[in-house]
Every structure is written in C-alpha cells, then in structure tokens.
C-alpha cells in the first residue's frame, strides 16, 4: 500500500523542470541541420549540381525513412520504455549528421541524402519519446504548456541555424561548416541524453519513473513472452477517436511546406540577397518562440483545440497568396506563415494523448501519426520539386497553388472535427482542462460516456492502415525514383 500511496502524490516540480530541460535538448542538432537546408537551397543547387527535385529528395530524406520506422519504433517505445531507445536514437542521429557533413567534402549529394536518412532513423522515434516523457512528467494538466515550451526552444534553434547559415558560408569561405556545426551539437545532445537516463535511474524515486508496458507486465506476473520487442496488439487496438486524425489529415503536413521549406529561395527570387532572404525566412520564428508557450497556456486554460486546427489552414492560404501573387513585402507573408506554423501542429499533438487515453499505446499512436506526416511530407517535397522544375524560370506559382488547395481542404477538415467533437466526443477537445476533469469525475461508467469512451472500430482501423500503406508506397516510389 505504501507504493500505491506514493504513486498518488504529484511529481515534484524540481524533477519536472530538470527532466524537461534535458528532454528538449535531445533534438537540438537535428533541428539545426534541417533549418539550415532552406537558406542553402540555392548554394546546394550550384555546388552539387542538383535539380529542385533532387533537393526535395535531400530535404525529405529523414521523412522518407520514417514513413515506416516510427510505427515499429513506437511499439518498441511502449513495450521497452524510452530510456534505452533514446540513447540509440541520439547516437544514430550523431552518426548521420557526421556522414552528411563528410558528404559535403566529397561533393556527393546522394551521400548527403544518405546522412539525412540515417538521421531520420533516430529523429522520429526521438520525437515520439519526447511526447511520452512530457506526458509522463506533466500529465494532461500541463501538457500543452510543456509542448509549447519545447516548440519554442526548437524554433529558437531553427531561427539561429537559419540566420547564420549564409553568414557562416560567407565568413568561412566554405558552406561545409554549416553541416559540421550541427554534427557537433548532435554529439552534445547524445551526451545530454545519457545524463538524463543516469539522472532518472539514480535520483528519481522508483515510483515516479516512467514504467514500460513490459515492466508492468513483469510486475503483474502476466504469462507472456517478455523477450518480445513490441506488442502488435497496440497497433490494432487504437481507438477510432484517435485514428480519425491521421486517417483524414493525410497530405496536410506536406501542404504546409509549399512556402515554408523554400521561403528563402522564394524571397531571393524577388530580388533580395541570399543573406537577407535567409534572415527574413528564419526571423519569422521569433513569433513561434514567443507564441508557442502562450498558445500552449491558452489551450490548457480555454480549450477549443480543434478550433485552432481549423484556423491554421487559413493563415497558410493567406501566406501563400501574399508571397506568390502580390507585391507586398515578404515579411508580411512570413508573419502569416509563422502564425500558421505556431498553431498548426501543437493542438493536434495535444489532442492525441487525450484521444488515445492510454500511456501504453501512446508511442504507437505517435508512431502512426509520424508515419502519416513523414509519408505526406516526402510525397509533397518531391512533388513540389518536380512542379518547380516544370515551371517557367523555376518559379513557385504551381507549388503555391497546390499547397493552397491542400490547406483549403484542411480548413474543411478542421470544421468537421469541431462538429464531430460536439456529437461524438462529448466536447472533450473543446472543454477546458478543469471542466473536462470535473465531468470525468462525475462519470460512473467511463465506457459508456462519449467523453471517456475509447473503443476500437475495425472499419476505421482497416481504412487508416490501408491509407497508410498506400502513402508509404507512394513516398518510397517517388523518393527512390528521383534518388536514382
């Protein structure tokens, strides 16, 4: 009974903040690498002699490999726990970043893509592990704020990396340092990861640690094969309330990149220098840095998660229209782009733990979510490159039109989610945290009330997994076609 009493006590804030400080440092190096690619697009085209489609292959390389790997990785995370998995991830990311940097010396773009593929093996699973860590340490009450703070740090790293990419190239006389610096940061992230695991194992009381499904099964003396790597039941046992998100979002992650990834190149084509374009395209992240914790706090305090999902596509549409089809200053379009990015991903990431409502399935759920996002991102990155190569003067008119069409459908989806929340989910995604917890406390049978009921519907499971297989096949086909 003593253990049970201890498990009911809240986790001390000292432990929470130390854990969060370590966890948000895990992906610093990989974030730096990805943020540097956009400003260097024109440089890479000239130095490596590649087309826009081939640049799309490089920029989507980490997404390509993670069209499948996050699902297996998510189930592995749930079964074995994230500690040992994250150390493997940060190590692989460090090796991949070093390979990418070495590729610049050899001027081999396929080796550069291979380095990003290696990084991709670790990036997506590391992201899923972060979600599990945050959900464990902060629970539903501070989830959005913690995600917001993590997004702010990530945006800060991305902003700095994007702003200094061209100055590093110009000051050192060689663009390769833009790849070696993040490789060094990847090594630092790996060390911080090891420090976190030691901190949890040595200083955190056992009842406050994140317990894996395997450890729980051993503790309960279940008769099962504890040597298995993961449980397939977690893949087939996800509720339809969650599956309706990845099953309908499909290409929305790729639609967001029509302007975002190539912002610096679009601005350069409007007559600005590469350095100025790089500063402007990454300076927009200031709004995300300041706004992410605020948006997280607002979601925790006032709810309306799906309303943000419906609002974000409108900002993307405005940004695409302004940058592509008007003569307004690029900063105006960048502000709308930044606002869209600010409120695009976080509400959905916050909704997933609430819709799954099972820590032992959370890694699998985020794995499927990442697989959908990465497949969609790979498809659209390569497609955008092909569209640009086929446009007069390699312009972005076709790219922005396709991106706008995808986001127009995203707005329709957001409105449908709001209606579905009211009719089928007990308004759980609209309610504030406090109100939702009050209602949950009054529910006598959680399996009969729409606010807490989480049931598996076979048709939804079959549909979602079928769509995922089709997207993965398409992503691999496009990637390999333009890689070879």
UniProtKB/TrEMBL annotation:
Task: Give the organism, scientific name.
Answer: Colletotrichum karsti
Q: Does the keyword Translocase apply?
A: no
Name the PROSITE patterns for this protein. MFS
One family name in Pfam for this protein:
MFS_1
Give the function comment from the record.
Lysosomal dipeptide uniporter that selectively exports lysine, arginine or histidine-containing dipeptides with a net positive charge from the lysosome lumen into the cytosol. Could play a role in a specific type of protein O-glycosylation indirectly regulating macrophages migration and tissue invasion. Also essential for liver homeostasis.
Where the record annotates domain Major facilitator superfamily (MFS) profile, the positions are 17-426
**Which InterPro entries does this entry report, sorted A to Z?**
MFS, MFS_dom, MFS_trans_sf, MFSD1
The UniProt GO MF terms for this protein read: transmembrane transporter activity
User: What's the protein called, per UniProt?
Assistant: Lysosomal dipeptide transporter MFSD1
- Keywords recorded for this protein, A-Z: Membrane, Transmembrane, Transmembrane helix
Q: Which SUPFAM superfamilies match?
A: MFS general substrate transporter
Main localization is membrane
Q: Gene3D superfamilies this protein is in?
A: MFS general substrate transporter like domains
Record field: transmembrane:
15-35, 85-103, 109-126, 138-168, 174-199, 306-325, 331-356, 399-420, 460-479
| The protein's assembly and partners | Homodimer. Interacts with lysosomal protein GLMP (via lumenal domain); the interaction starts while both proteins are still in the endoplasmic reticulum and is required for stabilization of MFSD1 in lysosomes but has no direct effect on its targeting to lysosomes or transporter activity.
- Can you tell which superkingdom this protein's organism belongs to? Eukaryota
The catalytic activity, as recorded, is:
L-lysyl-glycine(out) = L-lysyl-glycine(in); L-lysyl-L-alanine(out) = L-lysyl-L-alanine(in); L-aspartyl-L-lysine(out) = L-aspartyl-L-lysine(in); L-lysyl-L-alpha-amino acid(out) = L-lysyl-L-alpha-amino acid(in)
- Localization terms from the record: Membrane
Its membrane topology, per UniProt? Multi-pass membrane protein
> What's one GO-annotated cellular component?
membrane
